[in-house]
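Researcher: Next entry: Asp23/Gls24 family envelope stress response protein (Mobilitalea sibirica).
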Amino acid sequence: MKGHMNTQIGEIMIDNDVLAKYAGASAIECFGVVGMASINMKDGIVKLLRKDNLSHGVNVSIEDNKITIDLHIIVSYGVSISAVADNLISNVKYNVEEFTGLEVKKINIFVEGVRVID
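Model: Predicted structure:
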């Protein structure tokens, strides 16, 4: 299902992939987030995604025009995961709601790995 809004002059439909890319871009701007993660289900290998593949680490679903976002991230070694998660949820929720005009109902964070940053 897509995000859907009616305006005075017509309808607006927002594709889930657009939402996923925007959420991914907002996520990697947060302190402590190294990047988005992709998991190979066959062998369980987690890899860090390049900036042009951000939406692959994000799953978006929409029900009753309310957005649920799953973020698969890799965090920086030595940071507080709970602090990173709180900041991430706050920033992504604000950015996506401002961008779309739709409500973000829930953001689930999956920490898939830790990287040491030089």
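Model: Note for the record: Residues 3-115 form a domain with the Alpha-Beta Plaits fold (CATH 3.30.70.1350).
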